[in-house]
Specification:
Rossmann fold; nine-stranded mixed beta sheet; single chain; 2 domains; about 550 residues; about 20% strand; alpha/beta
């Protein structure tokens, strides 16, 4: 097994995840099997209990693992399905070691960071690597070199280098910042020098430096970094700002990074096959039209909260041959301002998931506006539930209709807590999570979107569902549940046949969207938005 360990210096948010994902995509393009591990040095056992404003979206894996959003990048770039074992956190590691200590596994020993914590970290990395059957495992070490919480993981990485066989079997890629200072636009190398010095003090010598900045490194600056950081000139790679993250693999490859890594790992893989990827990027960057989609959320100040939706729209845009512009709206704003003002001119509306009652009434107002004005709409998770609430209130006349999550005393709890969730007290990893099969009805919009498939598998993250007591009455009036769980008990898709595109899903289709195969529902929304814009233009 060979490892490529990606670390970061100077500050967080430099793009370690995109760097690692891009390297993985390039190696996959050379015929190698690649898997990925993300290390998060926070004490949470997973990302499930964190507010998106803290750490971006919570990405859900097939097995129900709630993970860091970078695992979404890995799945999208590598077109693989990862598990919760591919996300290592301080909380997971320490909990396991403490449980072993309490069980008596270390009787007679003093349990310490080294070797017990570092051994557990290494064991987890090796176990995932071996189980995957991959040729190369990418390991992204979250945080920044020098952070207290990252120290055990860096030490474990240093030890792994020796245990994996040293040079050729374990490569260190260090991402760092090269800022431009002053009016003359001078690129500064001092942050990189200090970051590499910190890394070397830990005992890790970087093989590659990926320099993030506004533009490509000047040759003199590249040579300076090579000299001061003791890295070969060809291993100092520029990662300038790009119009799309999907251009990054080509930017890195054009500088010879793939060939350099293969030489360092003593792998002979001369053939390059990136045709599908290149075709996707070309389509994405060369649209022939444009549509505007409004995202009505509650965490819109941090766009990373909806990362998978953003990427799903990029995938759909490339497949549909249009540019998708996003209009970000807070649900709360639609409570105090007219939807006709904030949503004027949009070609489609997405109501994403979320928790808590903040902004819920605004989302309901947006759904009503889309339904009445025949604007294409996609509701996801909470968006699905609120689509049902809106319909019951304004079509069936149940003015009190609501989710019991927001009003426990409503006369019409059309959305209610899942039976197995009643009495659950722990918040972490207790929702209905992960991939579940869904049966789609014949002659439905949903089944058409999924190319006629009768059964699909999509990922979930929710505690509430459509209340079975009201299903029959709701369907009689025109809102049809065309997707259901395999046992027929849980409603998974709602749609209105007489509307240009009114589809809502309890599941999260954005998590399975891929560059070469967009989420079927996001693509459906984009295509409907395209038709809607054409009709509006024709009227004018």
């Amino acid at each position: 097994m060979k490892y490529i360990i990606v670390t970061g210096g100077v500050l967080s948010g430099l793009g370690k995840g995109i760097t690692a994902s891009s390297i993985g995509r390039l190696l996959k393009g050379r015929g190698l099997k690649v898997t990925a591990v993300k290390i998060d040095p926070y004490l949470n056992c997973d990302a499930g209990t964190m507010n998106p404003y803290q750490h971006g979206e919570v990405y859900v894996l097939n097995d129900g693992g709630e993970a860091d959003l970078d695992l979404g990048n890995y799945e999208r770039f590598l077109d693989v399905e990862l598990s919760s074992d591919h996300n290592i956190t301080t909380g997971k590691v320490y909990r396991t070691v403490i449980e072993r200590e309490r069980h008596g596994d270390y009787l007679g020993k003093t349990v310490q960071i080294i070797p017990h914590i570092t051994n557990e970290i290494k064991e987890r990395i090796v176990r995932v690597s071996e189980a995957s059957g991959a040729d190369i495992t990418l390991v992204e070490l979250g945080g920044t070199v020098g952070d207290i919480e990252s120290m055990p993981f860096l030490e474990a990485a240093r030890q792994l280098f020796r245990e994996a066989g040293g040079e050729g079997n374990c490569i260190f890629v260090h991402t760092t910042l090269v800022p431009i200072m002053g009016s003359v636009g001078e690129q500064k190398t001092k942050p990189t020098q200090h970051s590499v010095k910190e890394l070397r003090a830990i005992g890790i010598i970087p093989d590659v430096i990926v320099a993030r900045g506004e533009k490509m490194l000047d040759y003199d600056i590249k040579r300076k970094i090579s000299l001061f950081c003791d890295v070969p000139l060809e291993a100092v790679v520029s990662a300038p700002d790009a119009n799309s993250i999907y251009q990054v693999p080509e930017i890195l490859d054009a500088q010879g990074l793939t060939d350099y890594l293969l030489r360092r790992m003593k792998l002979d893989c001369p053939k390059r096959d990136m045709k599908k990827w290149d075709s996707f990027v070309h389509s994405l960057m060369n649209p022939s039209g444009e549509v505007e989609i409004a995202i009505v959320g509650k965490y819109t100040e941090l766009k990373d909260s909806y990362m998978s939706h953003i990427e799903a729209f990029h995938h759909a845009a490339a497949e549909a041959g249009v540019k998708v512009s996003l209009r970000w709206l807070e649900g709360e704003d639609l409570e105090s301002k007219k939807p006709s003002t904030l949503l004027r001119g949009v070609d489609g509306i997405l109501i994403p998931g979320g928790f808590g009652d903040r902004g819920v009434e605004g989302k309901i107002n947006a759904i009503r506006y889309a339904r009445e004005k025949h604007i294409p709409l996609l509701g996801v998770c909470l968006g699905f539930q609120l689509a049902v609430v809106e319909y019951c209130r304004n079509v069936l006349g149940w003015k009190d209709a609501n989710s019991s999550e927001f009003n426990s005393k409503t006369k019409y709890p059309v959305i209610d807590i899942l039976p197995e969730q009643k009495g659950v007290k722990d918040m972490g990893a207790t929702m209905r999570l992960g991939a579940h099969d869904i049966e789609l009805k014949q002659n439905s919009i949903a089944r058409t979107l999924y190319s006629g498939k009768a059964t699909i598998s999509e990922r979930h993250r929710h505690r509430y569902e459509v209340n079975p007591k009201f299903i029959m009455e709701i369907e009689k009036s025109g809102l049809k549940f065309t997707g259901r769980s395999k046992d027929g008990v849980r409603m998974e898709v709602a749609e209105m046949a007489e509307h240009p595109f009114f589809v809502a899903t309890q599941f999260h289709p954005e998590f399975k969207s891929r560059p070469e195969k967009a989420s079927r529902t996001h693509l459906g929304l984009v295509m409907a938005a395209k038709r809607y814009r054409s009709r509006i233009k024709a009227r004018k």
